[in-house]
Every structure is written in structure tokens, then in C-alpha cells.
């Protein structure tokens, strides 16, 4: 959408992209649930509740922006910003877990 504009002659490409999006989303959802299960071994219920809360707020935000008529370009930029923030948070998490693992191996 930022670079490619769909046309009536590229209907097959739109369906292929939708199928790839669905496959990627299924993998993403599975990995997130697995990650939360590993990270929050003692408090899984709260972790999954928090995850579902933020997921639902994301859906709410998407529906509200659609209802208010926010253009697609702005929504794509906002999605890229949130994706970047999420990736940065994951990177910080990995760094903290690696430092914690290194500290525990030094102590032993």
C-alpha cells in the first residue's frame, strides 16, 4: 500500500497476499502464546489476560480509526511505528534474558 497500488488486473495477487498474511498471522499468534508460556511460568493467567487486553485494544483502535475516516497511509505509518516499538521491546527482552542467563552461569 505504501509502494504498490492494487488494480483490477491484479486480483490474484491480492488473494495470494491475503493467504500469506493469514499464514504469517497464525505463526505469529502461536509464537507469541508460546513465548508468554515460557516467560511467565508462574503467572500464566495474568500474562495471557494482559496479552488479550492489548490485542483487543488494538482491534478497538483499528475500528475507531476506520470509523473516523483516517486514511490508509496514516494507518500504515502508525502500524509501522507500533511494529517498531514492539520489535524494540522484544530486543530489550532478549538482551535482559541473555544477561540474566549469563549472570546465573557465572554464579554456578
Description:
It is a single chain. Helix content is 83%, strand content 0%. The protein has helices at 11-39, 44-68, 72-107. The longest helix is centred in the last third of the chain and has 36 residues, at 72-107. The radius of gyration is 19 Å and the shape is elongated. The chain starts with 10 loop residues before the first helix and ends with a helix. The model has no long low-confidence stretch (mean pLDDT 89).
Rough outline:
elongated
**Rounded radius of gyration (Å):** 19 Å
**Would you count the extended β strands for me?**
0
What is the tally of helical segments?
Answer: 3
Q: Spans of 5+ residues with little confidence (pLDDT < 50)?
A: none
Structural class: mainly alpha
SSE arrangement, N to C? HHH
How much helical structure, as a percent, in the residues?
over 70%
Beta-strand percent range: under 5%
Described by its quaternary structure, the protein is single chain
Q: Let me know the largest β-sheet.
A: none
Distance, first to last CA: 52 Å
Query: What's the overall average pLDDT, rounded?
Result: 89
Amino acid at each position: 500500500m505504501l509502494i504498490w497500488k492494487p488494480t483490477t488486473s491484479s486480483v490474484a495477487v491480492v488473494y495470494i497476499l491475503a493467504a500469506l498474511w493469514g499464514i504469517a498471522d497464525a505463526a505469529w499468534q502461536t509464537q507469541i502464546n508460546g513465548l508468554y508460556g515460557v516467560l511467565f511460568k508462574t503467572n500464566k493467567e495474568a500474562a495471557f489476560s494482559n496479552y488479550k487486553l492489548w490485542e483487543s485494544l488494538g482491534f478497538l483502535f483499528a475500528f475507531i480509526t476506520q470509523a473516523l475516516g483516517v486514511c490508509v497511509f496514516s494507518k500504515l505509518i502508525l502500524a509501522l511505528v507500533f511494529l517498531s516499538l514492539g520489535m524494540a521491546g522484544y530486543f530489550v527482552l532478549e538482551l535482559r534474558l541473555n544477561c540474566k542467563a549469563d549472570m546465573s552461569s557465572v554464579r554456578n
